[in-house]
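Self-study notes.
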Amino acid sequence: MPIRKKKRPDDLSVSLPQTVRNTSNPFGILDGYVPLSDTQTKLYYALREAVPVIDAAIFKLVRLIGSFELVCSEQGLQSTVDRFLNTVPVNGGRYGVSSFIASYFEQLLTCGTSIGEMITDPSGRLTALYNAPLENVELKRSEDGFGTDIYLSGPGGSSRVQYPDLILLSVLNPDPGSVKGNSLLKGLPFVSSVLMKIINTVGLNWERVGNVRFAVTYKPQNDSVDRAYAKERAMQVAGEWGEAMRPGAGVRDFVTVGDVSIKVIGADNQILDSEVPVRQLMEQIVAKTGLPPFMLGLQWSSTERMSSQQADVLTSELEYYRGILSPVILRIGNMFLRSHGFGGELEVRWNDITLQDQVELGRARLYNAQAEALENQKAEERNVKA
């Protein structure tokens, strides 16, 4: 009796994910396109403009991500790679891969999805980099249910890009099954709207109460003549008072006859203290960015400084972002080498993240040197005894 060979797990071949929804609707393709520039994206850019702390946090993260270099396995090509890294045109007005990555990372944090393109000359050599606006691009799940197809949106519909290998796409914290990512600012619109209401109300209250307004009241006497000319006298008092308070008129005395009282409107009212609610809302915003408050100019404590725990947490955040950007940088470098007919392998090396004070770093080096000296001394003593 022939023995049936048991099928091993490595013999299994899956051409597409089994959890992808399959629809037989002939018009289902209309639901497959995902525009990247939606109302939510416009809202995030409006938040950056309305709340300066959010805008400052985005740029602070872009600065903190640090610099990098591409190390080539072929020593003779290292100078060529460095020259390309520093001189490649970006968006027609900037130069260097670092400039491209800065704009790319800023778009990724704000929108959750970032699009870039490698520009080639007629011979196919990489010559420039371009950060694409999201309103020009739409995404669609590939037919295999796993990849992502990139389409160019236009008035006549969407058309697939001709050279998808030249497109750079990164997403931040995507939802399961989604082709686009989530913005770092997700969850902040509600908190920011409450904060803006408080700030706007404070401005209105200061405009009403801070810009002092007066109530001038003329009370006629009991005689018939005074009551008969009450309107004319009130108009005369109003005219003289307006002339005395006219901007640029200088300090002038107001003299009147009769029972006239002058009071400041709103003098008895107090503006609500906004420090506590504003700080509570700002804490929510700062917590979403992952940055310590003092890095954004918020001195909530007179002795506030970055602790080693905060530095470790922030370093892990930056390392996570570096992990998203490193494949993009590697693709750009490999495209440059292959398009110019060069060989070799590239490696992305980021500079060390330095968040601690220089004094603390110097003290740590001193302690390490002292510990090493003590260990060497003990080792010499043991050798002498032996």
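Second protein, same conventions, sequence then structure:
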Amino acid sequence: MATRMTENGVSTTQKGQEQYETFVISTRPKRKAVQYDYRSAETGELFTIVRPTLEQCRAKRDEWLREKGLKN
């Protein structure tokens, strides 16, 4: 699967940026999922997660930011 989110296996997400792609998990029944990357504008630390919806990904990102004491 080609992705715009990585180059040579490394995330291309820049500081303060989010990227996401939707894909289908090839199980029966087929399910959709979202691959989500966010790089902190403050520290440059990468948060990455796979969840069924973009909203769930962002909620987990916000929780991660709160735990780290970072801003969105």
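Instructor comment on the second fold: The first strand starts at residue 6 and ends at 7.
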